[in-house]
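Session log. Operator J.P. requested a structure for one protein chain; no other inputs attached. Running the standard single-chain path with token output.
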Amino acid sequence: MKKLVVFLVGLLLAFGVKAVESGQDTLISRVDGDTLEMVGSIVKKPHSPHRATIMAMILPGSGQIYNRQWWKVPILYGGIVADLYGIIWNQKRFREYRNAYVEWVNYLERLSKNPDTPYPDQPAWDKIPKSFDVNEYIIGNAQREKWFSDILSNRKTSFKRNRDLCYIVMAAIYAINIIDATVYAHFYDFEIDDKLSLRWQPSAGYSPINGGSLGVTLTLNF
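Structure written below.
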């Protein structure tokens, strides 16, 4: 029976050490001869900034959940969804104007070689919203043809630039997510004493050399 008790106590000690290493709260037991004594102290693994960083890198928002800052997760994913919408919208516009510009330039080249080249059937530039008819208003006028080419090129470049900026914003959101989780995890166990206070009061003095003086006295209590 004595050996069985010692064996069970050894298992409890091993389980207790394992629980402490895994960050779980546990009661430490101690054996003194034939007496089993329970030490009523709870051991808790400190908050891990490294774990918060890894979690935020793998899944944005999980680091904030680990830090118990649940309210930040909807804000984070709201920004991600809005930025994804910007990427998709600008990418779609960029493709429309890129295809329109390429087809338009190729058509002008064929038209310069053969003035009788027929107008294309449903060209890409006619699918873009505009307030004029290209076949009636642009074709046959060299100045207007160049003007329309510049419009397609500039808008294509503009939508591409906006899409790339959205990619940069997405990278910034991801980086801020990691930085926020890491920084807050470092301060998670930081306690501020209620007695911490800062007081200020005006002060006055007199010196035979400098004469009268006025100032402010700051008092920090902690």
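Operator note: Confidence is low (pLDDT under 50) at residues 1-41.
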